[in-house]
Amino acid sequence: MKDTSTIRKAVIPIAGLGTRHFPASHAVKKELFPIVGPDGIARALFHYHLIELDAVGIEEICVIVQPGEDEVVRNYLRGPGHEYLKRLEPYPTLLQEAERMKAFSERVSFAVQREQEGYGHAVFQTQQFANGQSVFLGLGDHLFRGASLSPYRELIQMAAASNGKSVSAVNRISADQLKGYGTIAGKRRVDNARLIDVSLIIEKPSVAVARDKLHVDDLPADTWLGWFGMHLLAPSIYDILGEMIRNNLRDSGEFQLTRAQDIQRRRHGYLALEMTDAQRFDFGVPDDFVANISAFRNER
């Protein structure tokens, strides 16, 4: 039996079409859009995941792409050629960044989603990469930062306490946000009130359904816990996704990861960790992109 108490592998999906960013996303994938960090360096959006994952000890990273996009990402991480590097010599921090990118290129592999069949279908393409181990999964078009502790680290540390169960980061959402997130019901643990034994998961519930079924202790009225965008997925998620695909079990025409997570909950149990000291930056739609460019640059 493989050790699931230490997370060594991470998955970052960037295979979406970026429809809401068209026509810019027709020229450049949204996960390659430039984002300026607090240090003033402009990087591709997905690049920040690599930096954060490296900082918390992740050894291997798999990026989910559409056919042919792996070479685009490889070229980005390889960095510029000799002549361009000479131009960077007056900027030592940028020259150092180019060296770090090359180091990342040796640790990044790719899984190809050949058909747009949903988030669960995309994750299933990384089954071979996971190789029976638990993996960290983070949304490719979101970035995350903690005020005092990295949310990547907080979630990954839960592997030691999860007894092999999947753990998803959640945060508080309001009624108008329900339409965008998987949402949970559950009971807080006595020894750690932020850790919740999940009793139900529903993708994008209506307000009426949420009020009726999605309760967690000590939340104010009309406040729920929804997906933050980061998950630790136990290996059984791949078996479940495989079953869903074989049985053509779809929601809204797609193979949804949230459905697989709720099946996993019923069979094996499922945990959620409430993020109370972390911030999510959503770059998935143009208006959020504009707002979060400034917020991410200035957040320290």
How many strands appear in the DSSP assignment? 13
Calculate the terminal CA-CA distance, rounded to whole Å: 41 Å
Sum up the overall morphology in one term: globular
Q: Would you tell me the overall average pLDDT?
A: 95
Record the strand order, biggest sheet: 8-11-9-10-12
Describe this structure in words.
The protein has 300 residues and is α/β, with parallel strands linked by helices. The protein has one domain (9-298): Alpha-Beta Complex (Spore Coat Polysaccharide Biosynthesis Protein SpsA, Chain A). The protein has twelve helices and 13 strands. The protein has helices at residues 24-27, 47-55, 69-78, 82-88, 92-105, 119-124, 127-130, 151-157, 207-213, 236-246, 257-268, 286-298; strands at 9-13, 34-36, 42-44, 60-65, 108-112, 135-138, 142-146, 166-174, 182-188, 195-203, 223-233, 270-274, 278-282. A five-stranded mixed β-barrel has the order 8-11-9-10-12. A hairpin with a 6-residue loop joins strand 9 (182-188) and strand 10. Helix 10 (236-246) crosses helix 11 (257-268). The N and C termini lie far apart (41 Å). The mean pLDDT is 95.
Short recap of the structure:
The protein has 300 residues and is α/β, with parallel strands linked by helices. It has 12 helices and 13 strands. The chain is globular and about 60 Å long.
